[in-house]
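Need tokens for this chain, all 252 residues.
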Amino acid sequence: MIHLKNEKQINGIRTSCKMLSAMYRELIPLVKPGITTLELDKWVRQWIQKAGGKPAFLGYGPKRNPYPAAICISINDEVIHGIPSKRKIISGDLVSLDCGIELDGFISDQAVTVEAGTVSEPLHHLNTVTKECLYHGIEAAKAGERLLKISHAVYNHASQYGYGVVYDYSGHGVGFALHEDPSVPNAPHGANPRISAGLVIAIEPMINMGKAEIFHAKDGWTVMTADGKPSAHWEHTIAIFADHTEILSDRL
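Here are the structure tokens for all 252 residues:
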């Protein structure tokens, strides 16, 4: 069931999003060669706690294997849901950061991909196109349109460069819970409801340099490209109004 939000509720989600973006502005400069992803996760936990929020990802998922960190950090051929560890970031890595904050019962979600040190031109191009896909998707998200217009916008932009668009994971509704209806796929498939005012969704292109196929690592969380080629990930939380669409998280 799709839960539309009223003005007061959207304002609560907006406030959570602004907090999350403020966190990213301080975090991104720390993503440098030599730092471990575990150190970054520790920093994120402390920042969110000090700001008065709660990490929305920590403990999320099945009781038998809940997500153990405050932020997902996925490097190179890791698409999403990478678990922070003692792994050190090295120059040339493509580092995807995905995080959410719960603030007064309202949840934000945003992802960015950071180029650590000096990356190759093909990696930079992949990252640039993935970010462009996000904004093409947002441009298509308007009241009265069909949901899969977003999917077509993302897919068409990525496909012209021969990139693989991840099919198995999608954007989603957000705000009251971390994942709500509707699913917002990056490759057009599935339900195609009309976009209504009050809809709050996270649009999040996951674009692979090679094929679209993925597999899951043994940790039960990390999603990897099947061909071992790099992937990039960008995400915004947005709100649909009758006469405009607002990006609730900040551009980074």
